Amino acid sequence: MRSKYHNKKVVIDGHKFDSQKEGRYYLYLKELLEQGVISNLRMQVPYEVIPAIWEDDVKHLKTKNKTVKKCVQRATYYIADFVYVFTETGKEEVVDVKSAATKKKESYRLKKKMMRAFNGIDVIEV
Predict the structure, then answer these.
(1) What are the residues whose beta carbons fall under 8 Å from the beta carbon of 118, sequence distance 6 or more?
(2) Are 122 and 94 within 8 A, CB to CB?
(3) pLDDT digits (tens, 9 = 90+) for 6-55
(4) pTM, whole model, 2 decimals?
(5) Burial call 28-40: b when 16+ CB within 10 Å, e when fewer
């Protein structure tokens, strides 16, 4: 079955990547890691952009009422492809590997804007 964006999934060093482009970028970052240019390389890092909403729910029991928290809306997350730190400056970068088609997805564009607005993080697209 073909994927929606015609990408081919790959496995490199036991890590599964959604596209060959993402796999190649991982190899590039791995090289930078070995050279000491970057450190603390992490993949598929979740960032909460909208917190969960909880409300009190009153349960009526035989002898008393009990209040419990009920999740009425789950949190929304942005999942970064790669996060790493430049060794020399200590600056952390959040990177997402995107094709021309996936850059246009409204859900991605909205989450990218929320990352900047709510978390102060600029997502770098490659």
Answers:
(1) 49, 50
(2) yes
(3) 678 899 999 999 899 999 999 999 999 999 999 999 999 999 999 999 99
(4) 0.83
(5) ebeeeeeeeebee
